[in-house]
Amino acid sequence: MIHLPDYTPAGWARLREVAPDVVMTFEEQRRKSARIALQWAEQGVAVTEITFDRDIVDRLTAWCAAEGRPVDSAARAVFGTMLALELVEAAGTA
Question: pTM of the entire structure?
């Protein structure tokens, strides 16, 4: 199983405010995410989307600040993995 971020419009707008490397529009990001999900599904990999709303992006920003990290793709990958693990453990499916 793979977990992919599913940004809300407000979450994506907030991410664009705090992450200088994020340049895609919300629509471009949605198309890219759908393409990636389809590629994984075609390979037989289960895909679960995790909603990234403004609150989650604010948690990401706070985590990056606490860790002394920029809000870049590497930090987003680590945070996303931690969030996925948190959700899996909360669901009792770990």
Answer: 0.87
